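Same chain as my last thread, 181 residues:
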Amino acid sequence: MSKESASSIVESQRAVARTHLEQGSVTAGYSADRPAVLQKLNEALATELVCMLRYRRHHFMAKGIHARGVAAEFLTHSNEELGHADRLAARIVQLGGEPNFAPDELTTHSHAEYVAGDSLEEMIRENLVAERIAIDSYRDLVRFLNHDDPTTSDMVKAILAVEEEHANDLADLLEDLPGKV
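reply #2:
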């Protein structure tokens, strides 16, 4: 490439960068379907918030001889889910969207359910089911993003790794309950 053509490319990039400044980091090179990405991120946000609330309830409602350690794990997971929600909300705003925190819409947009659970075992099982749903949902989102939005894809992959840890933690807790083989 000649020095002249390289200079021309740089000048062109500079000119394009000066347009649509209100879009922040979303440049002309962003190739993902932004409205679809925002919708999927808001669904993930709802899922994280529902999971955070369920874990929080389970933390406070856990009872029995094995409850103390399990409740502590629920609280840790709840805090991590809230961190995921914050990351998702921040990314939604970066992409020019609005994070949906409307309480009456969370359960309708969430992929996971809010199940109160009556026993420690039921609480662990419901949280494990929700984590498995989140894992598959995040895998689908990574495939959807493909290479069109590497920043969001990297963030989702990091969240996915934590969700997989949560599922393994819960499976271990379930295995450790009395009467389980």
